Amino acid sequence: MTFSTKYNTINDENINEMVKAFYTKVLEEDNSVSKVFKDKLGDDINSELWQEHIETLTKFWAMIALQDDAYKGSPLAPHFALPLKKEMFGEWLMMFFVLIDSMYEEKQATLFKTRAEDIAKNFMRVLDL
User: Fold this and answer.
1) Are the C-beta atoms of residues 10 and 106 closer than 8 Å to each other?
2) 94-115 pLDDT per residue, tens
3) How far is it, in rounded angstroms, from Cα 49 to Cα 16?
4) What's the farthest any 2 CA atoms get from each other in the chain?
5) Burial tier of 33 (Cβ tally within 10 Å: 0-12, 13-18, 19+)
6) How many CB atoms sit inside 10 A of residue 4's CB?
7) Could you tell me the CA-to-CA distances from 97 to 5, 12, 90, 103, 112 in Å, in that order?
8) Strand partners, 53
9) pLDDT below 70 — which residues of the chain?
10) Can you list the positions of beta strands (E) in the chain?
11) Number of other CB atoms surrounding residue 53 within 10 Å
12) What residues contact residue 69 under an 8 Å CB cut-off, 6+ apart?
């Protein structure tokens, strides 16, 4: 996915665009990360399950990037029931970084990438991976 102009600010609209673009890309892939998402949520990004996930993740990243308080939940809890492996976090980060670098200017991209790495490290630690 290529964006003609990179964002130099972060707001709710481009966070939602980022989340939709990222998970659209995940569904196009044939790897262990996409398999987990397809098994859990299906392969139709327009389904009710996916739309709920996109809304939740939009709120989550708005909390991270904008200190928005709309996200209510535990980001780690849903991951305990998934068949996750350490290498999947590397795959997820690689896909995420490519998208973030294509959408945002360096300063904004760095914020997302740094937080994503921190989150992945924490998840792997807590999940004992």
Assistant:
1) no
2) 999 999 999 999 999 999 999 9
3) 16
4) 40
5) buried
6) 4
7) 17, 19, 10, 10, 8
8) none
9) 1-3
10) none
11) 18
12) 63
At which residue do the structure tokens 């200017």 appear? 105
| Residue corresponding to tokens 């098994």 | 39
Q: How many CB atoms lie within 10 A of CB 18?
A: 24
Six-digit token pair at 68? Answer: 């928005």
Q: Each residue of 85-96: pLDDT tens digit?
A: 999 999 999 999
Please state, in angstroms and rounded to a whole number, the distance separating the CA atoms of residues 107 and 104: 8
Three-state secondary-structure class, residue 103: helix
* Distance of alpha carbon 67 from alpha carbon 38, whole angstroms: 30
The CATH-assigned architecture of domain 12-126 is Orthogonal Bundle (1.10)
> What sign has the CA pseudo-torsion 91, 49, 57, 5?
positive
Structural tokens at position 4: 């003609």
Where is 63: in which H helix or E strand? Answer: helix 48-66
